Amino acid sequence: MTPSVRLQEMIRVIRSARTQGEERGIIQRECADIRAQFRQGDNGERSHSLAKLLYVHMLGYPAHFGQMECVRLIASPKYNEKRMGYLGAMMLLDEKQDASLLITNSIKNDLSHSSQYVQSLALCTLACMGSAEMCRDLAPEIERLLRASNSYIKKKATLCAVHIIRKVPELAELFIPAARSLLSEKNHGVLHGAVVLITELCARNPDTLDQFRKAVPELVQIMKGLVTSSYSPEHNVAGISDPFLQVRILRLLRILGHNNDTASDAMNDLLAQVATNTDSSKTAGSAVLYETVLTIMDINSESGLRVLAVNILGRFLLNNDRNIRYISMTSLQKIVQTDHNAVQRHRGTIVDCLKDQDTSVKRRALDLSLALVSAVNIRSMMKELLIFLSTCPLELRSQTASGIFNAAERYSPSKRWHIDTILHVLTTAGGDVRDETVPNLIQLITTASELHCYTVHKLYRALVKDISQQSLVQVACWCIGEYGDLLLKGECEEIEPVQVTEDDALEALETVLQSHMSSPATRGFALTATMKLSTRITDNVDRIRSIVSIYGSCIDLELQQRAVEYNALFKKYDHMRAAVLERMPVMDKNSPGHTNGDASGEIKEPDPSKPKPIEAGLLSEPASQVCDLLDLLGGTDTPLQPKPAPTITPTTTSSADLLDLLGGLEPIPVPTVTVYEKNGLSLKTQCDKQTETDVTVTLIASNSTQSDISNFTLQAAVPKSVQLQMKAPSGNVIPAHGLGQVTQTVLLNNPNKVSLKMRLRVSYSHQGAVHQDTVQIDSFPSLGWNCQPSINPL
Q1: Are 724 and 686 in contact (CB under 8 A)?
Q2: To 5 degrees, how large is the angle CA 632–CA 635–CA 636?
Q3: In what way does this protein cross or attach to the membrane (predicted)?
Q4: Beta 240-241 vs 681-689: how paired, if at all?
Q5: I want to staple 492 with a disulfide (CB 3.0 to 4.6 A). Which of 453, 517, 521, 557 is the partner?
Q6: How many whole angstroms separate alpha carbon 580 and alpha carbon 576?
Q7: CA-CA distance, 80 to 78, in Å (whole number)?
């Protein structure tokens, strides 16, 4: 039986094994036989035994004992053994193995061998597993082979040079002259390797760009020859002449033309020719056209050429291949801000992609559709997006709702249309919207005073029809509490009037309070609305009093506290009840987050369901912090006297008693420091020293880009002597255009009062890419343990 048959027989036996145990037994017997063959020395069977061992290695079994045999076979003068030895080295050895250093001298000798096939074995092995030390030793030999007359060797030497540059970037200068001369070769394999080598040189060392930009006319001529060449069976792929080389040349032209007018002008005509003459019906042609589009968009191209590139991407949207549609929309997403009008021409096709069965295509179509919304097409686009919202997968509902809210905020033609749109979203996907949607809508409703009657009637009907959407129920309860008198009048010109009695309104709120679907926050809204109705109705005040008293013993502490306070308002402060529960004033939206505190003394939006008192201890805190900071600089014997806190006089209004009840104080602003700012994401910290050892750090993240940031997470680490507790974040999606924030509170306990440091890991997804960064905060503001804030991004 010949050796080759023995290998085939081994493969047949292994494949016929019925169980894994039987297979292991066969492998163990064969490995024992292979070891015996290796120990017998030069018996002519070593290469066949190594071939069997490589098959065993391919099956996932240990084959490390064959490494030294690879070294011995590489040194053999026989080509068959040398070939098997090099193959074994590429499979069994890597740069971490000491045995790889033993073949350096053999590779060097074979690089000077008279046979091109032996030289090629050495080149392939060095390009596959050459370590940094091997690359340094053999780089001069590779540079010599780049100037050889044999195209077969030059082709492999160029790819070997690419590997050397990746391993040892400082050796790049050695290959620059040879790389430039390789562009004059006619062999496509050598040309392909030369273009890859030049691309790698430009990417690793930007200083070489000026040298290779002189070769742009030569690259343009090569590319024109490929585009206009006649049929060549050796290089033709689906009617495209060597698409692999075309793609490589286009990538290199993209690098050379970036931010360079001269190089860009030299390739404009070529790119127009490629874009108009390449057939996109085959995958090979689509690949060339896609690279052409990327090159046009990345260089300083003419406006007409950019429109042509967008039209090519528009044709890709009609392709039956979902992969091509996906990359087309990904590219359009990147250029929609710079070439908005050109992309708008394909809006209908993009919207049709929302109906695609593939979720990833739907997601890209959604991102692009939201980016195309403008003041001109807001009504038609919103109609399509609302239809999509009702049928889209659950994982896309939150993103869709967020995008609709942002678009309506920016381009709404009227307040009524804005309110109707948000209510439509809440009715369809109220459980998938962000937490800030409720206060944002309440703020919008308060500013539209002419629509209060219309809004409260519409929300009442929605509440009676369905109480499963918690966000919608919360807004409806708030409106019924604020504008219950308008609801009971039943006079509304904008909508068909419906007569609502006091009992009807109270029954709707009681249904919310008693429903198992209502969250504690929703019950809080409903209880507050019920209490507010006590000043807007006349006949059912006793019923409201009984409803409130029931929840005075509620198991939910928040709801119980509200009920107890409202009972006290009925019993002890009934003379103040009308002033306390009067209609809320118009809320000014001074920031995307609707902050409650404002130095100007204006009344801002409180918690819709319950205002919370301000701690008087906040006033004395900054003075003690000043003393602590000055003490660090001290050495003085004179004790420092803190400056007395300024007296704050409450503003006199019609609800002066309420302000007096809540303290009439406004919180002193806490210093804010930006600790991270990258890719449009900004992360700020606010530090509040609660006691001598306890600190509250608030992390505030905002997004200034054109699209939402999703999967936002923060991780924190502090010294071992400090105890850390991270509260749950307010969300994991940061809205675009700074329209919202994500906050997370970190509680620190520093019993030893050591210098406080913190390391943050920021992770998030943006436009399909996952980002992760680490930030080192060496000290914090407003703390007596540190001198000054210091931020070191890692």
Answers
A1: no
A2: 115
A3: Peripheral membrane protein
A4: unpaired
A5: 453
A6: 6
A7: 6
Instruction: Give the C-alpha separation, 280 to 282, whole Å.
Output: 5
Measured CA distances, 572 to 565, 566, 568, 569, 575 (Å): 10, 10, 5, 6, 8
Q: What is the pLDDT of residues 569-580, one digit of tens each?
A: 888 888 888 888
DSSP 763: E
Q: What is the 3-state secondary structure (H, E, C) of 136-198?
A: HHHHHHHHHHCCCCCHHHHHHHHHHHHHHHHHCHHHHHHHHHHHHHHCCCCCHHHHHHHHHHH
Residue 688: phi and psi, rounded to 5, are -130, 110
Element (DSSP H or E) covering residue 647: none
How far is it between the farthest Cα atoms of the chain? 111
CA distance 538 to 239: 85
| Dist CA 753 CA 446 (whole Å) | 47
Per-residue confidence at 278, pLDDT binned at 50, 70, 90?
Answer: confident
**pTM greater than 0.70 (yes/no):** no
Range scoring the smallest mean pLDDT among 15-19, 64-68, 333-337, 668-672: 668-672
Asked whether the predicted pLDDT for residue 794 surpasses 80, the reply is no
Query: Is the sign of the CA dihedral 263, 157, 288, 291 positive or negative?
Result: negative
User: Hey, is 689 helix, strand or coil?
Assistant: strand
Find the DSSP H helices in 466-519.
470-489, 502-514
3-state secondary structure of 211: helix
Query: Tokens standing for 522?
Result: 């929703």
Residue with tokens 């302000």, as numbered in its chain: 659
pLDDT in the model for residue 117: 92
Closest CA to 754 of 774, 776, 779: 779
Residue range 709-740, pLDDT digits in tens = 988 999 888 888 888 888 888 888 898 888 88
At 443, list the tokens. 């703020």
- In the predicted structure, residue 629 carries a pLDDT above the cut 50: no
Position 226: which residue type? L
What confidence tens digit (pLDDT) does each residue in 746-763 have?
Answer: 888 888 878 888 889 899
Q: What are the distances in angstroms from CA 574 to CA 156, 315, 486, 533?
A: 93, 71, 24, 14
| Amino acid, single-letter form, for residue 235 | H
Mapped onto helix, strand or coil, the DSSP state of residue 428 is helix
Report the alpha-carbon distance of residue 28 to residue 61 in Å, rounded.
Answer: 10
Q: Which helix (H) or strand (E) holds 674?
A: strand 672-678
Question: CB under 8 Å to 255, separation ≥6 — which residues?
Answer: 199, 202, 203, 209
**Beta strands per DSSP E along 529-627:** none
pLDDT surpassing 60 at residue 668? no
Placement of tokens 């905020």 in the chain = 409
> Rounded to 5 degrees, what are φ and ψ at 778?
-85, -20
How many other C-beta atoms are found inside a 10 Å radius of the C-beta of residue 737?
17
Rounded average pLDDT over 349-355 = 91
Q: Give backbone dihedrals phi and psi of 770, rounded to 5 degrees, phi first.
A: -100, 125
**CA atoms of 598 and 603, how far apart (whole Å):** 8
- Complete DSSP assignment for 710-738: EEEEEEEE--TTSEEEEPPPS-S-BPGGG
CA–CA distance, 500 with 139 (Å, rounded to integer): 89
Where is 677: in which H helix or E strand?
strand 672-678
| pLDDT, tens digit (0-9, with 9 covering 90-100), for 143-198 | 999 888 888 999 999 999 999 999 898 988 889 888 888 888 888 989 999 999 99
How many C-beta atoms lie closer than 10 Å to residue 725's C-beta?
Answer: 10
| 760 secondary structure, DSSP code | E
As given in the structure block, the two tokens for residue 157 are 């030497």
Q: Is pLDDT larger for residue 581 or for residue 793?
A: 581
Length of the chain counted residue by residue:
794
